[in-house]
Write a structure and sequence with these properties.
Helices cover about 20% and strands about 35% of the residues.
């Protein structure tokens, strides 16, 4: 048994977590503003903090805040869960940002021919499935280490190559003159501003997004998101583990109880042979969450270890 197993872990982890909060981000606030609020007001001892997926300031809805060791699962969240949006856009408007956050003189009102609702429905539904789009010039996508919007504000428009996305569901909700409301469920990284502009192009015009509401990220729905009045307040009691969801309950991989010997190997990051179906799983010992593992052909590998020594008494 390694010497690491016999000494007290120096990385026992924070006092809370790993937890995920389903938070309602109001319009006008940045995703970083919400993170800063939680960082300042949560009780001490939560460790690291971050969010899964930026929501533009003009948008509102579900924003996932992660604390403890949960921020380490950013890629798993994005890969596993699609995101559902309710979007409202206006046809016949060209905007450098794809929305109405610019000064009115920067908007260009262009021609928009008459079209039937059936034609619009057909165009919208044509986007279902694989879909390629380029990140917009005004976005957080980086070029040479700097966000594209910073380049754009300096007058340099960077055109990034198209990226493959997936639209699993999309439907027209309402058509009122040139104002279009639609609901879409898309893979992580899909820019809804660009999607609406592409819909408008198929109608022979331009379009800009007026409102955007993120209704869900996987199992986190807007109906259960924490409104501002339920956010933590400094020096006030806050039931951290009641408002947050433990990461192994949010990412619903199978759970596997390991023996003490197996748990020690897991703690030390060692691969081991064991019969189990291929895929990710949560490793536990005596009910304590040790981390995330993956089975490939009955070989268990540690993907994310929490540093909890199974030989260490609580």
């Amino acid at each position: 048994m390694s010497s690491r197993s016999n000494r007290k872990s120096k990385n026992a982890g924070p006092g809370f977590g790993p937890l995920v909060f389903n938070v309602y981000k109001p319009e006008g606030m940045t995703s970083s503003d919400v993170v800063r609020h939680f960082k300042y007001h949560l009780p001490k001892g939560f460790g690291k903090i971050g969010h899964f997926g930026t929501l533009d300031p003009f948008a509102e809805g579900v924003l996932l805040i992660a604390i403890g060791q949960a921020p380490r699962f950013n890629d798993y969240i994005h890969e596993k869960f699609p995101k559902t949006y309710l979007a409202t856009g206006v046809l016949g408007v060209e905007s450098p940002t794809g929305d109405f956050t610019v000064a009115e003189e920067e908007l260009d009102f262009v021609e928009c021919s008459e079209f039937s609702e059936d034609k619009l429905v057909s165009i919208i539904e044509s986007f279902k499935g694989e879909y390629s789009q380029s990140p917009p010039a005004f976005s957080a996508t980086k070029h040479q280490g700097k966000p594209l919007y910073e380049w754009a504000r300096q007058g340099v428009i960077i055109e990034k190559p198209e990226v493959q996305r997936h639209i699993s569901e999309i439907e027209l909700v309402e058509l009122n003159g040139r104002v279009v409301t639609f609901r879409v469920t898309a893979s992580s990284g899909t820019y809804i501003r660009v999607l609406f502009e592409d819909i408008a192009k198929k109608l022979g015009t331009h379009g800009a997004l007026k409102n955007l509401v993120r209704e869900s990220i996987g199992p986190a729905h807007i109906e259960k998101s924490l409104l501002e009045e339920a956010w933590p307040k400094r020096d006030a009691d806050y039931l951290v583990e009641e408002f947050g969801t433990r990461i192994d309950n949010f990412l619903d991989f199978p759970k596997l109880e390991l023996s003490e010997n197996e748990a020690v190997k897991f703690f030390n990051g060692l691969a081991m042979h064991k019969d189990f179906e291929n895929g990710f799983f949560w490793a536990l010992h005596n009910g304590k969450l040790l981390g995330l593992g993956e089975f490939e052909d009955n070989l268990l590998r540690v993907r994310v270890g929490f540093g909890h020594n199974p030989l260490e008494k609580n």
